[in-house]
Write a structure and sequence with these properties.
There is one protein chain. With about 130 residues, the protein is an alpha/beta fold. The chain contains five helices and seven strands; from the N terminus they run βααβββαβαβαβ. β5, α4 and β6 (about 105-110) form a beta-alpha-beta unit. The chain is globular and about 45 Å long. It starts with a strand and ends with a strand.
């Protein structure tokens, strides 16, 4: 499985590669790439966030930043499954984990702040999953 994780904090996922179940399959059954949005942003000063489109509190990851990152890595929105990790998504259950484990190539879009500009979920992701109570 090729697993690509787009995030603002790739170092926050580094611990995962040291966990025995994951470390045992890295390079053989699992290829994990951690990709930083900041490395791909088309904006000045590595900016990645803005106020929510349509108003609201907090800051969200901009749609143009996510689109630029997908374009830099895949040449556009990929044909394989792209999952936005968002509180508005369907709940992560064992059944969903097993469903995702069956994918040959999977992209996870991780956000910070208040989440994503809603257009990321609508236009760039093929699925939205909530990974916990918020």
């Amino acid at each position: 499985m090729q697993l690509d994780v787009f995030t603002l904090v790739p170092h926050a996922f580094a611990w995962l590669t040291e966990q025995r179940p994951v470390a045992a399959v890295l390079g053989t059954k699992l290829d994990l790439r951690l990709i930083s949005y900041r490395d791909m942003t088309p904006l000045r000063a590595a900016q990645v966030d803005d106020e929510p489109y349509g108003g609201g509190a907090g800051m969200v990851l901009r749609v143009d930043v996510v689109a630029a990152a997908l374009d830099a890595v895949y040449g556009g929105v990929p044909e394989h499954r792209v999952v936005a990790l968002t509180p508005q998504g369907r709940q992560l259950t064992q059944e969903v984990v097993e469903e995702l484990a069956g994918e040959e190539h999977l992209t996870l879009l991780s956000a910070r702040f208040e989440g994503f500009d809603e257009r990321v979920v609508q236009h760039l992701a093929s699925d939205a999953i909530s990974i916990g109570p918020y």
